[in-house]
Amino acid sequence: MKNSKFSKIFVALFLLIGLISCSNDDEIPTIQPSTSYIEMEAEGGETEITFSNSDWQIAEVRNQNGNVTIQGSTYSQDGEMIKENSVLSLEVEGKIEALWDSKGFVITRGTPSSLKVFLKENSTGEEFSFTVLLKSGEEVKEVEVFQKKSQGYQFDSIEFNLKENDGDSLFVKKGTTYRFNGPQSQEFTVSPYGGIDVDKHSIFLSSKKDAFVWIENDSIMVEVPTDIYNNELYFNGEKRLYGKYSSINPHGYEEMETVAIPAGQSSFYIEQKWRKRQVSYELTLINNRTGEEKIIEGRWIETAPTGEYSIKWQG
């Protein structure tokens, strides 16, 4: 009976020693993020990751498409740039960022034990993913970030309004020069708005980098102002193509001018009066996924001949 009790005690001690030995072999990871995977919609946003300790650093950020190191800018906690166009890393508080026209991210370490991951809207038409490599000594931990591709937007409306520096302004352009050398006088008929670069040029401009990407595959014609009087805009159904490139429309002046040319050498050119019109706009798009509005502000600029001109003789 005593031998049996002694055997049971021996076995229990043996198992306890074994468990203690196993516990010593399995070290608790130093880097313990609250999540190792972030998934975000194309519209972007911000997610916070917390840690149980602060003994870690961001070693680098890698693009999952091609597994290449992403370069960008590194800032101190007070916002001073430390590095530019270099491998992204951060040992203490501060932030790193890689921002492009159509996608990008900002990772901020506001406290020793937290990270905030901000993604701007993804307008590439493709998924965007990258990996944040965290390091503590020889230990490495990865946090994967995945952003879905956008489902796009639909055009809803556009509104024009007059802001500071908007309105009409006039300027003159020198048209084609005509030269003559004949023994007798003659008549010459010319189009006052003939030649090159004499049509209406219309362009939409915006400081927002994604102002045109959402509808660049669609041809959207929008009604534009045809007159400004007493700070009021007037419309008559005339439309222009909304996009990032300039559009050209005929000037519409078809009249001809007959000029009496004297004998001998002579020359003249047409001095044309032109108008530059600048009007601010607010474009509204509807997100296909969320149904929410996206507002894009900018300026519409058009240069066009007024129809007024004069004959300018040269010596």
From TrEMBL:
Segment forming the signal sequence:
1-23
Q: Which UniProt keywords apply?
A: Signal
Task: Write down what this protein is called.
Answer: Uncharacterized protein
